[in-house]
Amino acid sequence: xxxxxxxxxxxxxxxxxxxxxxxxxxxxxxxxxxxxxxxxxxxxxxxxxxxxxxxxxxxxxxxxxxxxxxxxxxxxxxxxxxxxxxxxxxxxxxxxxxxxxxxxxxxxxxxxxxxxxxxxxxxxxxxxxxxxxxxxxxxxxxxx
Length: 144
What we know:
single chain, Protein-Tyrosine Phosphatase, Chain A, five-stranded mixed β-sheet, 40% helix, globular
């Protein structure tokens, strides 16, 4: 399991698959997990306040309800002082960085700044075009 912080309170990375991963995330101060894995929402993930938004990494646009739930979960978590959110997918390369891009945009970051923060945290990460554009449409921005 790998974790990459883009801000003091927001990180992304690969799947939580062992109790050791749970311990490591707790040591990092993680309190909330947004799980984007399609296949599993294990007991290990549920050790945190968690939201499961399962979808395949198919590079297709996501529906509005997907972004609505993610935004609501993130905003609620950020209202609590000291909370930290971890966004996870299988390898932490496409889905979770793309969701973190969206959450940074929700927080007020511009598109270039959001991409830069993701890539600064993990240079091999990809903000997938279809995910980025559907998130921007949800936010009401025509240009992605």
